Give the backbone structure.
Amino acid sequence: MLSIENVSFTYESGASALEGVSLEIRDGEFLCIVGHNGSGKSTLAKMLNGLLLPTEGTVTLDGMDTSDDDKLLDIRRRVGIVFQNPDNQIVTTVVREDVAFGPENLGVPTEVMAVRVDEALRSVGMEQYADSAPHMLSGGQKQRIAIAGMLAMEPEVLVLDEATAMLDPLGRKDILSIVKKLHDEKGITVVMITQYMEEALYAERVVVMNGGKIEMEGSPREIFMRGGELRSIGLDVPAAVELRDMLKESGVADLGDAVDQEEIINGICRSLLKN
Ligand code: ADP
Ligand code: MG
């Protein structure tokens, strides 16, 4: 449904941020994009709803081109982006108004706003804060408000650009489970950009960016079998996968392509019992 075709992008400064990127984002999928700083992730995110337009190539949502002015509002309503810094996304002094702000600007009719705002706040577990002042909330709560603002547009695609990067581990976990639930229960397409490899385990598909290009693509299981390649471009594997690789290298146990913690712990237990 979201189609990125041979997209290149150069900033006015002359910095080339994307080079010949092609990617299809399927309806209802949970995609994760990883890559070290400066690899082009945020530039790519901004391409998805026309905040930036390709220097070369095209980005289309159900055939609508982001460079078509007439389609831009519709595309922005259907593809919501939550950014890294929660403070930059707060624009009013009351939570309820903040959630309504984005959708109202994108032309969502006032009559349906109240209902949508309530529902969006419920979806992120923030309904009791509807009349609070956003600046009094924690970083994690502010991100939940930012997500609610997107949900009130009833988007088809939710893009999170390192939306958990400034949160503590608990806040991070909250956001992840909210996003997972939105995907599982509402069928929202999720594009999660993250520097935490553990978060990539939630995804159905992982895209690895390096130097403005797509370096690897596959399921988390496939990607995390390629630890050496990941390390060579400045990335990591989840801690449990690192342990798995160490056990294999030292000849202690071969846990195959196990990726999640439970799977790896079970594998270790089994191999201990065998020996
Ligand atoms: P990431 O999100 O993976 O860290 P970015 O998309 O932000 O990567 O950046 C990709 C490249 O584009 C980097 O070299 C970065 O310095 C450059 N860049 C990003 N934003 C701007 C900007 N506003 N002006 C000029 N260059 C930029
Ligand atoms: Mg970025």
Strands lie at 2-10, 16-25, 30-34, 56-61, 64-65, 79-82, 157-161, 189-193, 205-210, 213-218.
